[in-house]
UniProtKB/TrEMBL annotation:
One of its GO terms (cellular component) is plasma membrane. SMART domains: AAA (SM00382). One of its GO terms (molecular function) is ATP binding. It is a peripheral membrane protein. Its main location: membrane. InterPro entries: AAA+_ATPase, ABC_transporter-like_ATP-bd, ABC_transporter-like_CS, ABC_transporter_ATP-binding, P-loop_NTPase. It comes from the Bacteria. PROSITE patterns: ABC_TRANSPORTER_1, ABC_TRANSPORTER_2. This is ABC-2 type transport system ATP-binding protein. It is found in: Cell membrane. Residues 5-228 form the ABC transporter domain.
Amino acid sequence: MTAVVQAEGLTKYYGRRRGLEDLTLDIQPGEIFGYLGPNGAGKTTTIRLLLDVIRPTRGRVQVLGGDPRDPAVRARIGYLPGELALEGHERARDYLRFLGRVRGGVPASRIEELAERFEADLSVQMGKLSKGNKQKVGLIQAFMHEPEFLILDEPTGGLDPLVQHEFLAMLREVRRSGRTVLMSSHVLAEVESVSDRVGIVRGGRLVAVENVAALREKAVRRMELHFDAPVPAADFEGLAGVRDVRVEGAGVRCTIDGRPDALIKAAARHTVVHMVSAEPDLEEIFLTYYSDEEQHSARQESA
């Protein structure tokens, strides 16, 4: 199957300032791809290149098997920008119906259905919308024509938790229908909960592309075991991937790097009455990648 996004050596400089450098990336059909990084990392520059809002300094990119400059390709994309400029006296409902006509005829019932799911009041004038309601209108216009490819830049800004939950449910529906999503965010939890893969970008460079499950395997997690009787400390010494072990009577606390297999096998020699595993924090993983990238850049500059 043809990749939805195929980028090779994609680079954009603004004068002497690097926006994005040497991005090589494939996004596959039916995939939710999370694009993560701090503000200014290059996420929005990437999106603007995919949409042909800006042109690359060098490199090439195909979207949906075609040139991003082709209007027929753009018609198959739904886009939510990171900053929405919705102004004027026109009511949100009229604005969305106008966009629906431009996009080939989106039924009014489809717009109303999405407004209900997002709890959006479409009777309000555009210039009087709150930040949260502007975001809801932006999401409705991105989803309403059921595009093959959704590009969402910081999509949950200003949304309350219940609406965020509904938004993530809609992303899962999009994936089940075989369509594709690129979601740029610095909110780790939302990306983790729905993404198949994540790309980590920093300073205009793609640091890593990982399967979310693989990221979890690399994660550091803290574990606590309680047994029905005191256990010998020697049973938990020198275990692969286990460190910072503290044995206190019938309790064992430790840190696991990756899989807990060795610890579980050691614990199975005794009667476990209680076990607590703190979920691995993806932020720690990302910070590790960022730190590694900074060290790599520093070595290159000193070379």
